[in-house]
Amino acid sequence: MLDPPSRGTLLFDEIDVSGLSEAKRLLIRRRMSMVFQKPLMFKRSVGENVAFGLKVRDCPRTSMAELVSGALDEVGLAEYRDRLATTLSGGEMQRVALARSIVTKPDLLLLDEPTANLDPGAARAMEEIITRLTKSKVTIIMATHDLSQARRLAQRLALIMDGRVVQAGTANDLSDHPASMNVARFLSGEYWQPISSYQGGKV
Amino acid sequence: MDEISAGLIQAVWLIASLDPEVMEIAGRSLAITLASTALASAVAVPLGGLIHFQDFYGKRPLINLIQTLYSLPTVIVGLLVFLFISRSGPLGSLGLLFTPQGMVVGQTMLILPIIIGLTISALGGVNPQIRETALTLGATRSQAIVAIVGEAKPAVFAAVLLGFGRALSEVGVAMMIGGNIRGYTRILTTAIALQTSMGNIELSMALGIILLTISLAVNLLMARLRGD
Questions:
Q1: Closest Cα of chain B to A53: distance in Å?
Q2: Do B140 and A101 touch (CB under 8 A)?
Q3: Do A56 and B140 touch (CB under 8 A)?
Q4: In this model, does residue A196 exceed pLDDT 80?
Q5: Distances (CA, A) of A2 to A25, A94, A113, B53
Q6: pTM of the predicted model over 0.95
Q7: Does residue B218 sit within a domain?
């Protein structure tokens, strides 16, 4: 959505977004948000970081405070609101990044290896939050290298090898009926390649 | 060493007794420098932003030129501004020569390159991912720029402070454009130059200490405003 696709089309809700005007793209961009592998905090308080997406959408101040508290509660960092975000630990920053992304109630949440840089404890906390989020309306697309994590979290998996989706389906589909020798090898641990997992519905 | 301690004692005395002439000179120094810093910042910070965010032919050489001008000798600025505002110069009709307003113009010219250049550096120092982060959180392109500027705020603040320091401490422009007229364009630095040449070392020391005290006070105030 930030860069035009080099090939093919990009569909969101069955709309081809690649040819849209900047204004229309913005409207669609504002229905999604993303958490990067290494989250970058604005040099402001945790609360202001979480409020960023609301501010750029001209959200009224009164409801902003409430939404920010709600999002921070969701990731278990309510008491961190006034801390300087750049002083937090990696795991805490990642949770703030998640709160910052869900505070605007997006339809689609993109997670790019959100636990890759975290210690096991922080990764688990993150997974628990993501699991809770899957119960809400939001559709999550998460990229991960961790096969067992993908199995734990995802309703649907899409295995990407050499830049192509080689097989998509539930975790059981993939392990019971691997589409190729390579898929089977990968799932048995002989191959180590990126894998994406889909959660929720239509994208 | 005697002169330093005697100067210190006299400085304390001059400040404590609120010596009218010293207060007036110090006040004028501060007023002229604050005016030129404000004027220069109002032009230089947006201009620095424009240069940073635009891609154009000759951008790199322009930045190199601006950085070279950091070390522009104050007497050269004094000379150039003098040429423009002296009676026969293109701006001679404005009557700025030997006035505090003329000094503000000269000091502004002097510190413009510093504030422009350091603003560009400040913005360049912001993690480029800030822009992407802002965009993925729903910012428009211009809101993303505002976010980048927000991240650079402390460094831009430092740029302005450095400009202020250079303007406060310079002698060349003040002497050549202001003319060191008692009660009108005399400021701390030109007063120090004059008193030293007259052999009043202790008074010069005292004025020097006052100059540094003002600088310290402004720095502390700025740091407070910034929330350090």
A1: 5
A2: no
A3: yes
A4: no
A5: 9, 22, 19, 18
A6: no
A7: yes
Q: How confident is the model at residue A199 (pLDDT cuts 50, 70, 90)?
A: low
Tokens representing residue A137 in the block? 């309306």
Tell which B residues from 149 to 188 touch A, by Cβ distance under 8 Å: 150-151, 154
Q: What does the block give as tokens for A125?
A: 């906390």
Report chain B's mean pLDDT, rounded to a whole number. 91
Shortest Cα–Cα distance, A104 to chain B (Å) = 9
Distance from CA of A55 to the nearest CA of B (A): 9
Choose the mutation target among B137, B143, B146 for the interface with A, i.e. most A CBs under 10 Å. B137
> Within a domain: residue B174?
yes
pLDDT at B112 exceeding the cut of 50: yes
A157 close to A140: Cβ distance less than 8 angstroms = no
Closest by Cα among B161, B181, B173, B27 to B104: B173
What CATH number does residue B156 fall under? 1.10.3720.10
Task: Encode burial over A80-95: b for 16+ CB neighbours within 10 A, e otherwise.
Answer: bbeeebeebeebbbbb
Could you tell me the pLDDT band of residue A3, with boundaries at 50, 70 and 90?
Answer: confident
Helix, strand or coil, per DSSP, at residue A143? strand
3-class SS at A144? strand
May I ask the CATH architecture of the domain A110-203?
3-Layer(aba) Sandwich (3.40)
B211-221 per-position pLDDT tens digit: 999 899 888 88
Whether B11 maps to a domain, the answer reads no
- Quick one: pLDDT at residue A201? 40
Q: How many domains does chain B have?
A: 1
Task: Determine, for residues A56 and B143 on separate chains, whether the beta-carbon distance falls below 8 Å.
Answer: yes
Q: Which domain, by its residues, includes B146?
A: 23-226
Which of A42, A58, A100, A105 should we substitute to test contact with B (largest number of B Cβ atoms within 10 Å)? A42
Task: Kindly report the nearest CA distance between residue B162 and chain A, in angstroms.
Answer: 22
Tell me, yes or no, if B129 comes closer than 8 A to chain A by beta carbon: yes
- Does B13 reside within a domain? no
- Which residues between 41 and 80 in chain A have a beta carbon less than 8 angstroms from any beta carbon of chain B? 42-44, 52-53, 56-57
Q: Where in chain A is the domain with CATH 3.40.50.300?
A: 110-203
Higher pLDDT, B176 or B18: B176
Residue A7: band (very low, low, confident or very high) from pLDDT cuts 50, 70, 90: confident
Judged against a pLDDT cut of 60, whether residue B28 lies above it is answered with yes
- Residue among A128, A124, A98, A91 nearest A112 (CA): A98
